[in-house]
Amino acid sequence: MPMPHYAIQLSAAEQQELETLRRAGKTPQQTVRRATILLLAQEGLSNQAIADQVGTSRNLVQKWRKRFALYEPPPLVAKEEVDPRVRLAALQDLPRSGRPPDFSPLARHTVVAVACQGVEAREFGGFSPYSVRDLARLVAGRGEILTMSPATVQRILAALVLKPHRLRYFLTRTDPEFEEKMAEILELYLHPPRHSRILCLDEKTHIQALERLHPTLPLRPGLVERQEFEYVRHGTVDLFAAFDVGTGEVFAQCYQRHTNLEFRHFLRALRVRDPDSRWHLIVDNAGFHKKQAVLDWCAVQRPKVTLHWLPTHGSWLNQVKIWFSILSRKCLRRASVRSTHDLRNLIHRFIQTWNTHFAHPFEWTYTGKPLAVAPEHYELLAA
Description:
Blueprint: H1 12-23, H2 29-42, H3 47-54, H4 58-69, H5 105-115, H6 132-139, H7 150-159, H8 178-190, E1 196-212, E2 231-244, E3 250-255, H9 260-273, E4 278-283, H10 292-301, E5 305-309, H11 320-332, H12 340-358, H13 375-382
Parallel strand pairs: 1-4, 4-5
Antiparallel strand pairs: 1-2, 2-3
């Protein structure tokens, strides 16, 4: 008797999800096989042809075609609200009888409740984070739980994707104009005004002049370069830098302090090098950037000098930060100097080499949500 034919029609979202399952390295092989069966069935192949390609039996192909074709979404969810990928739940094994669970839902809820306690409510004062062994000790003797193994605790947490050992930081946004300021900076990067230079300014403070107690041992076949761990500290240097977004070139000067006096001196030195261009200066919200003397100097230079303030906690928008990272990795990390004078010379030699051989605009990208900029904002920047 011929097997009934179950046609498979997949949505674009379902096809994409099945392809992802097939390519993922951690997908169980049985799930990969079932996903492959559905994708080949979508192409109109017969059960026997699919079985030959997958390396399984025709009955197994028929089984998964039938289960997927007849699958119904959960009754509690309206069909128009169901994600089209919800049908892929048909790829999972059906519940089996097996041994009944050792712990009731109430016991499992107890484990979850203890694991999700806030730091202030935890019973072990100052004991954070909880491991599965800690949780097994804590829940023992609670309610109907006489004892519970760490492995059981681990399975309960894994089923709900709970990871008490993990911690992720977040930063509360305090700038009410964050979006507007960010859009302004991004617009400068994407559509710089004509006949103008976009300069990102910032300071890398307290660069230590470190001298290693013994010379660095050079690279040899089979041996990496080795550096003495102990060092002598000969003071610090503050670096003021301006990164040209259009060319990638850097102008920088070293100082002993970082106050508005040094900042104004740096701006004047930068202006002497390029007295005729129109500047758009991108700066952060450091206190000495907003000193009245600095604002007065910029006001005198207008319209050739325009300040653009980064949003609070938006230092990632400043491209000179990328160059500071390059400076640290390529120059400072392995340096050994005997004085701040030697450190200054080292930094200036690196900048000269960078500007001569390596300067280039950064391919700076933004991967967050799309930003909408008001039309009047474009007109302001183009002016």
